[in-house]
Amino acid sequence: MMGSDGAAERLLRRVPMADPAREYEELRARIDAAVRGVLASGRYVLGEVVADFERAVAGLVGVRAAIGVANGTDALRLTLVALGIGRGDEVITTPFSFVATATAILDAGATPVFADIDPSTLNLDPAAAEEAVGERTAALLPVHLFGQMADMPAFEELARREGLALIEDAAQAFGAKEEPPDGRARPAGGVGIAGCLSFYPTKSLGAAGDGGMIVTDDPALADRLRRLRDHGRGGTGARLGAGTNSRLDALQAAILATKLDRLERWTERRRAHAAAYDRALAPAVDVTPPGVREGARHIYHQYTVRAADRDALLARFDGAGVDASVFYDPPLHRLPALEGRCRVSGSLAAAERAASEVLSIPVFAHLGEAERARVSGVLSG
Q1: 55 by DSSP, 3-state: which?
Q2: Same structural domain for residues 211 and 128?
Q3: Tell me, what's the pLDDT at 381?
Q4: How far, in Å, CA of 155 to CA of 141, rounded?
Q5: How far apart, in whole angstroms, are the C-alpha atoms of residue 147 and residue 269?
């Protein structure tokens, strides 16, 4: 870890939204050894390193299979393709998410249908999703936004009643859980037919580059996904050419595996940062903290506040030397690239309002105490 000189230097720098290099500082010896081991093996694509990492992730999520792919976007797209969802089908999802949620649906040949969000959690509203169901609806794709699971019990019931596939976009929520007071905990990705993870460097478990994974309890779906990610190879009934190239590199799997036993520790650090921000915001009247659904364990991939005058708040952070980011303005249904390629259900008023008010601030695990104090000072000021 960086010593006192490094800590002093940080006081003079801007507080970043994220700094993956600090994870490397903590695990430098382990990561270097893992990388050297892969390089010495000569097995750089798939292989046992990837298979071992897949088994470890499947165990954490509590499912029978995990399939490593090139990135989180491919995890979404290949899941849809493997389920036979494509041309003529509609997939209901949120307009308040990163664009990959929608483009993965389009790339599979299907049409995104945007339903409104819950104004507190900012996740897809099950009631709005139900109103969006039509004759062509094939799947529900809730996003576990900013590190909090969507209302999966409600989506499970809707999927069961309407005969729909339930797919989790868990790109921002590896480590999040459903923790009902009267039931067993269920990790993000382990509730629907499949969960889609991203290992982008700033995620809760981040690679040194791109990476993704699909987790599922369905052996037949896992078999199809293994074929799809590798040109038709890797599963029973393999047919060369019946797939694409979307394989998780062994180097990335090795690096990710070194971090896996730190995931819970890093999650608790982010949760501690979030609790400090909640306390700083307690007396505020113009800024509200993230809404947390009862029974949901929020891992705070982002700590996202709402402010009536977001521009003024953003200026305050900038003046204090603190980076802050807006996710997501405009919402997806307002993006010119998606115009005419999606269906909108209802007014999406909650999504429109959220897009004009939200602001995300630094909450990454390796944020220093002095840095957190600077952030808290802006919130309480």
Answers
A1: helix
A2: yes
A3: 81
A4: 9
A5: 14
Residue 227 lies in a domain: yes
CATH number where 316 lies: 3.90.1150.10
Q: Residue 1: what pLDDT?
A: 46
Query: How long is the chain?
Result: 381
5 or 229: whose pLDDT is higher? 229
Residues with Cβ within 8 Å of residue 164, at least 6 apart in sequence: 133, 137, 138, 139, 140, 158
Claim to verify: residue 366 and residue 229 sit in the same structural domain: no
- Which amino acid, residue 18? A
pLDDT (mean) for 331-352: 97
| CB count in 10 Å sphere of residue 91 | 27
- Helices 263-281, 369-380: crossing angle, 10 deg rounding: 30
* Average pLDDT over every residue of 201-216: 98
Residues 230 and 266 in one domain: no
Mean pLDDT of 193-208: 98
Domain that holds residue 74: 28-260
**pLDDT exceeding 70 applies to what percent of the chain?**
96
One domain for residues 139 and 283: no
